[in-house]
């Protein structure tokens, strides 16, 4: 028998911006699909119209585009199992609700919100289940004609699954192993609502996983309590043979490690919990995103991949291809992963340093333009190569490298006091002469010549270098001094030296 093709899905509900934990869930699905030569599907679970937020679907699609996580099928990607938006699959679900009703595995319930509320006050910890359903107003307790009449009269109803009590249901989880849950803790969940003619999450999710031939359901652990119900649904439909394998991922925890990572943690500690910036359409509130905060998508992906999974050794920096090769669900941790955002910055630095200078230069160009600098890309590339080791984000390059684009107009007072000696002006005037006749104005040749001159004169190397740096940079920072001179060029270097002599005397 040929092996079944791996098909996994990411199935977000468009209720707001995609949380970074959701991105990790999608990433793990993607890694598994690519490793197995399978398909990765984007399904939008929008059957809860109450919670629908405009723009959320577009946001989700744009996020994955930015992150370089590609779908093979789904909303906006097409495919043979569509439509992939659940709100467009209404008619499909009805048939399956009918099937359960006809088989006596589900029933109509007419209880009004008031009636349910009354029961809740009457019975402590009320749950609509085998122990209570016969006290309620549903097709199990009403005469058949009455049920038919109510439906014909357009009375509002829901369809509930009928769950028998006291049966152990075993979830075989690829990460957690066997998780046994007794059916008595489950309630007769609503599967369909006549009011909007829409199924609830549980029914739509199972029907779609089946019809879309999903082989693995990889999702957050908040869905583990729903898994027994889902297993029952597969059984009720007679689909147990093709039931997907489950893998419930551990939570992303607060950086301190106690409790689930929330947007408030991000606000409190100053890091984004969303891939892209998000503006709440109702409140106008803005939440920061990794993209706008200057993170490289590769760094974000690498960082997230290791929150809950490791390749089994110390390797941390991995390309997408490597992660695809190494990924293994059974190496995922059962316990929550602390969201160490400082580590996220570390990843960004690593990726920035690894990147081509040219690529970074292109990312730096807009920052330069913000500072009214129109520089030649080749020059920017050279500068980037000299300072990229010192930054975490592209925008920080400006702090490190602005002097390559604008000559200092003032000099750091403390540095002047310490580094501009009585003889600095005279010595730098001589240095300017030495530099003038130097050709080519390269890094090492120039360094040799200058050092030879200092030695011949018996000057103090450190003093001259410090004063020169002050003249060229305006303070005491920056890369190797002869890298600076070679990059600025002869004319600019000499000009800055003369300017410092004039200003500092
Ligand atoms: N729509 C659910 C969510 O928003 C999907 C859960 C699942 O993957 O089954 O997370």
Q: If you had to describe this structure to a student in words, what would you say it looks like?
A:
By secondary structure, the chain is an alpha/beta fold. It has five domains: 7-75 and 204-250, HUPs (Rossmann fold), CATH 3.40.50; 90-193, Glutamyl-tRNA Synthetase, domain 3 (Alpha-Beta Complex); 263-351, Glutamyl-trna Synthetase, Domain 2 (Glutamyl-tRNA Synthetase, domain 2, Orthogonal Bundle); 355-404, Glutamate-tRNA synthetase, class I, anticodon-binding domain 1 (Helicase, Ruva Protein, domain 3); 413-504, Arc Repressor Mutant, subunit A (Orthogonal Bundle), CATH 1.10.10. It has 20 helices and 15 strands. It has helices at residues 20-35, 56-67, 90-102, 113-122, 144-152, 201-211, 227-237, 263-269, 297-305, 320-326, 341-354, 357-370, 377-387, 397-401, 413-419, 424-436, 444-457, 461-473, 481-488, 490-504, and strands spanning 7-10, 39-42, 73-74, 106-109, 158-161, 168-173, 177-182, 190-193, 198-199, 216-220, 245-249, 252-253, 278-279, 286-287, 337-338. The strands form six sheets. Strands 4-5-8-9 form a four-stranded antiparallel beta sheet. α1 (20-35) crosses α10 (320-326), α9 (297-305) packs across α11 and α12 crosses α13. The model has no long low-confidence stretch (mean pLDDT 96). Glutamic acid is lined by residues 11-13, 45, 201, 205, 217, 219, 223.
């Amino acid at each position: 028998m040929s092996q079944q093709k791996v098909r996994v899905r990411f199935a977000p509900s468009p209720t707001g911006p995609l949380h970074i934990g959701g991105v990790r869930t999608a990433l793990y699905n993607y890694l598994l699909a690519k490793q197995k030569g399978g398909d990765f599907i984007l399904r939008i679970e929008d059957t809860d119209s109450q919670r629908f937020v405009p723009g959320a679907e577009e946001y989700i699609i744009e996020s994955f585009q930015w992150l370089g996580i590609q779908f093979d099928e789904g909303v906006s990607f097409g495919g043979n199992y569509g439509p992939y938006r659940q709100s467009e699959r209404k008619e499909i679900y009805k048939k399956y609700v009918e099937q359960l009703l006809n088989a006596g595995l589900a029933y109509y319930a007419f209880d009004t919100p008031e009636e349910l509320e009354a029961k809740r006050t009457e019975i402590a910890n009320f749950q609509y289940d085998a122990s209570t359903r016969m006290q309620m107003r549903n097709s199990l307790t009403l005469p058949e004609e009455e049920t038919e009449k109510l439906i014909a009269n357009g009375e509002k109803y829901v369809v509930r699954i009928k769950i028998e009590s006291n049966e152990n249901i075993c979830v075989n989880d690829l990460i957690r192993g066997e998780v046994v849950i007794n059916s008595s803790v489950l309630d007769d969940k609503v599967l369909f609502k006549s009011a909007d003619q829409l199924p609830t999450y549980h029914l739509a999710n199972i029907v779609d996983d089946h019809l879309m031939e999903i082989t693995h359901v990889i999702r957050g652990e908040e869905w583990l309590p729903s898994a027994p119900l889902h297993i029952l649904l597969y059984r009720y439909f007679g689909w147990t043979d093709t039931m997907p394998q489950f893998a419930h991922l551990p939570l992303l925890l607060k950086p301190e490690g106690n409790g689930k990572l929330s947007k408030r943690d991000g606000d409190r500690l100053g890091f984004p919990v969303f891939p892209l910036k998000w503006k709440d359409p109702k409140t106008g509130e803005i939440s920061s995103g990794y993209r706008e905060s200057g993170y490289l998508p590769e760094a974000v992906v690498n960082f997230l991949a290791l929150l809950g999974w490791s390749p089994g050794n110390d390797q941390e920096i991995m390309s997408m291809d490597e992660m695809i090769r190494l990924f293994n669900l059974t190496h995922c941790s059962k316990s929550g992963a602390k969201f160490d955002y400082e580590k996220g910055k570390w990843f960004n630095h690593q990726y920035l340093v690894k990147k081509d200078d040219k690529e970074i230069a292109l990312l730096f160009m807009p920052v330069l333009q913000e500072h009214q600098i129109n520089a030649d890309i080749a020059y920017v590339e050279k500068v980037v190569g000299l300072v990229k080791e010192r930054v975490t984000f592209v925008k920080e390059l400006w702090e490190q490298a602005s002097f390559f684009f604008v000559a200092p107009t003032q000099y750091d007072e403390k540095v002047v006091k310490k580094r501009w000696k009585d003889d600095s002006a005279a010595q730098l005037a001589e240095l300017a002469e030495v530099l003038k006749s130097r050709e080519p104005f390269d890094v090492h040749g120039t360094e040799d010549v200058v050092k030879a001159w200092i030695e011949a004169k018996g000057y103090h190397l450190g003093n001259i270098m410090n004063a020169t740096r002050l003249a060229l940079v305006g303070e005491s920072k920056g890369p190797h001094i002869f890298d600076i001179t070679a990059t600025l060029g002869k004319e600019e270097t000499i000009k800055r030296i003369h300017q410092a002599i004039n200003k500092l005397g």
